[in-house]
Write a structure and sequence with these properties.
Blueprint lengths: L5 H18 L6 H11 L3 E2 L7 H29 L1 H39 L8 E2 L16 H4 L3 H4 L18 H8 L6 H26 L5 H19 L19
Parallel strand pairs: 1-2
Keywords: Plasmid
Length: 259
């Protein structure tokens, strides 16, 4: 590829893998969002666990923003040398990577807004209610049944609610309740959900990158060809470490839970 330094491709690969590694984790799961919401309403956790889930989400969002910035910085470097190649790569990233990270950030933004509202309007709604972090008994883990919204359907939690408090994640009076629930239910629940969705992302991104490479390889030097092929191989290698094969399957960001 004309005028693009080979080291730039290596840096791009490192930045992409750093971002994908961050997404291949549990910093943005549905359970973390729901935990932040019940904490804002005074809930506690059995055995005193839990911590500040909103702060955890905010820190995760900041990490994603920082890693995105690293990728975008390399794309800008490529733009200076080859504007056409940079624009195509920017389009690929927007359609196959940043669209996903934007959804994660939007959900965290909405949860943060709702939490801050709840702290003002309903800080005592769940006072005295102790949720099981990760679910109760044999349900311990990142599963649908471990979600606070699902625990609220059980007698163990309902029996702790004060009179007049509905067994719902958010009060009906919360103006952003519907939007908040809609966004967080797009987030994954289990480790399998996370891995499946990262597999989807890598598959879509890799397919688009291959088209980009086929268009650009004819213009590239031998060294640049090797560098771009190295990016492809590393992405395939990253995908192979996931529990789900790198193919397009399932619904994006986990299966939504039915109300």
């Amino acid at each position: 590829m004309p005028n693009v330094d080979i080291d730039t491709f290596r840096i791009l690969l490192d930045r992409l893998l750093d971002l994908m590694e961050a997404l291949d984790g549990f910093g943005w799961t549905q359970g973390k969002h729901e935990a932040a919401l019940v904490e804002a309403q005074g809930a506690q956790w059995v055995k005193g666990g839990g911590g500040n889930h909103l702060q955890s989400l905010i820190e995760y969002r900041n990490r994603i923003v920082r890693l995105e910035g690293g990728v975008k910085g390399v794309v800008e470097t490529i733009r200076v040398a080859n504007p056409a190649a940079s624009q195509r790569l920017k389009d690929i990233l927007s359609a196959n990577l940043f669209n996903r990270t934007n959804a994660i950030k939007a959900a965290i933004d909405q949860t943060e807004t709702t939490v801050r509202s709840l702290r003002q309007t309903d800080p005592n709604r769940f006072v005295g209610v102790k949720f099981f972090e990760g679910g109760a008994g044999t349900n311990v883990g990142r599963t649908v049944s471990s979600l606070p919204s699902e625990q609220l359907k059980t007698m163990a939690i309902r029996s702790q609610l004060r009179q007049g408090v509905e067994p719902t994640l958010l009060p009906r009076t919360q103006p952003a309740a519907e939007r908040t629930i809609s966004l967080i239910r797009q987030m994954p629940v289990s480790a399998e959900d996370v891995r499946r969705n990262i597999s989807q992302m890598v598959a879509g991104f890799l397919a688009a990158v291959r088209v980009w490479m086929s268009q650009m390889l004819s213009q590239a030097s031998a060294a640049a060809r090797l560098a771009m092929i190295g990016i492809e191989e590393a992405l395939v290698g990253f995908g192979s470490r996931l529990t789900t094969p790198v193919i397009l399957i399932g619904k994006p960001w986990g299966e939504p839970i039915q109300s």
